[in-house]
Amino acid sequence: MIRKLLLAEAIAVVIIFLLSGCASTTVTMTPQPPTSLCQAASDRASALVLWAPRWRPNQKDVALREAAAQQGISRFFETSACFAHTEVRRVSLESAGQQEQVQRLAASAEHQPDRVLVIVVRELGPIVKLLSSAALVEGGTEVVLDVSYYGAHGSGPASQYTVHWQNAGPGVVKGVATLPTDMEAALISSLKPSTR
To answer: Fewer CB near the terminus (10 Å): N or C of the chain?
Structure first.
């Protein structure tokens, strides 16, 4: 009886150890952008930020993810020293003729932008893998963005890169509560704003 009790306690300790993991953050940008896209050095630099979701066909909780993306993107541009003036708009972008659409939107911007950023959100959500390593559970959150940037008034050609941001690890289980913060962290890592 004592042996069974000790075995049960040992198993419980192992399970708790495996479930209480540490998360680490990785950021991959392909290709690597040449410099920071932020123009904090200029007190008058302005940007038009157009963002659009492009979810996979079987994406769940679309409204929740879009609200989290909007909140994270807005908070990043409100609190970072990326640009002196930023206008953020959620848009529906067509693949064909994107530059013409960007130029039309830039022409109607509140401040004529020095730079136009287009952020396409392809993934924003928790990830969970069961039995994928020595840990029973491996998970975290993931953000995948396609970032295009244009010159003043949406002039081109555009330069583009893909961002894959992930905060995950063995024994980590995260929900949707951190998604706005995760979106903001992905933008901090990929746009490289200076600190105030």
So the answer is: N
Q: Are 140 and 127 in contact (CB under 8 A)?
A: yes
Please give the Cα distance from 33 to 10 (Å, whole number).
50
- The per-residue DSSP string of 97-146 comes to THHHHHHHHHHTSSS--SEEEEEEEEEEEEEEEESSSSSSEEEEEEEEEE
Closest CA to 47 of 85, 90, 77, 75: 85
Identify the residue whose tokens are 């896209």: 37
Query: 14-63, pLDDT tens digit by residue?
Result: 444 444 557 788 999 999 887 788 876 666 788 999 999 999 999 889 99
Residues 176, 137 contacting (CB under 8 angstroms): no
Is cis: bond before 34, omega within 30 of 0?
Answer: no
Helices (H) and strands (E) in the chain, counts: 4, 6
Q: Please give the order of strands across the beta sheet that includes 85-90.
A: 24-30, 159-170, 137-150, 115-130, 46-53, 85-90
Q: Which domains does the chain have, with CATH numbers?
A: 23-191 (3.40.50)
Q: What is the pLDDT of residue 10?
A: 47
